């Protein structure tokens, strides 16, 4: 585990395996929805999906993704924009702690879309680790652990379920290198391309790499599904972006310390950073990610004395809610939250995320246009907005509502 720093910390935890953890369902979603958009329904029987295997059958084309929002429309003049909220998950491996399905259940309960940034090596057995050739590091090296075979199976099951329930599958790349010469912060555009192609191959070839024939394919074409990612420790974006643009990506979520304002594009991609949000009890702000709140509470411990947990849980929850409220009541800038499937400090950060999502869903139920979406769904909306409308929204600073109300904007 890397050392923590305070305040503007960007040394983000690598996911479940970073904490020392080691690491076949149906092609219908758990509520019975079919991934095939046009199939007919027979009473009492789930419609069959049209499955067209890709490559070795690790992935497959199964039709239009289910549970997507209606096609976005441009804002009318003077119309208040929706309040977008994106919950995202780095690593997205299931290691037996039940956090992946816990938050899938929560998202389904509240009609939320999310983005899962999958680490490619979480689908690569440790026995095959030499298939991974990380830039500026020895073959097979990784600063996060490889998962056990059982946990790879669990991860496949939950990634499959996530997509079928409408969520986005992005990438957190592979080995999570954040320090020294091999750090992702030193990689060239060509090295980023190698890392991305390897991450994709581990998803697209898990069947070959594991030898398993008893699991169904992931129900998407990853070459088309993958349109964005978040780099380890929020490092290396400058050299990533040229490669991401060439690969046809639509956004990147790797900028550190963004402000709660409407986003811009960098090198043709939407730049969607984690954000500085209020931190109750302090004069400084904290990055909108579980790891960074932890770093400002327990400094360098993921297992601090338990008597701290109730206060820290409440502080983390109120930090997220304060960030949401500031945007919601003023400039309506999108609110981004980053997480890891971790039980750091007794699982208080997972509780904080759950409490925050429930609070936001409650605001939506009051009748306001609050949308819990994935990054991909958010950029779908951005891409249909007139440039002059987005320029006006960007002119609103953090915590600034339009003078004279939205009708005057």
Helices and strands in order:
Elements: E1 52-54, E2 59-61, E3 83-91, H1 99-110, E4 114-118, H2 149-164, E5 168-171, H3 189-204, H4 206-210, H5 222-225, H6 237-246, E6 251-252, E7 265-266, E8 269-271, E9 276-278, E10 285-287, H7 290-297, H8 309-328, E11 335-340, H9 344-365, E12 370-372, H10 375-382, H11 387-394
Parallel strand pairs: 3-4, 3-11, 3-12, 4-5, 6-8
Antiparallel strand pairs: 1-2, 7-8, 9-10
Helix pairs in contact: 1-9, 3-6, 7-9, 8-9
Short description:
This protein is α/β, with parallel strands linked by helices and 409 residues long.
Structure explained in plain terms:
By secondary structure, this protein is an alpha/beta fold. It is built from eleven helices and twelve strands. The protein has helices at 99-110, 149-164, 189-204, 206-210, 222-225, 237-246, 290-297, 309-328, 344-365, 375-382, 387-394, and strands at residues 52-54, 59-61, 83-91, 114-118, 168-171, 251-252, 265-266, 269-271, 276-278, 285-287, 335-340, 370-372. Strands 3, 4, 5, 11 and 12 form a five-stranded parallel beta sheet that branches. Helix 1 (99-110) runs parallel beside helix 9, helix 3 packs across helix 6 (237-246) and helix 8 (309-328) packs parallel to helix 9 (344-365). The longest helix has 22 residues, at 344-365. The model is unreliable at 1-47 (pLDDT under 50).
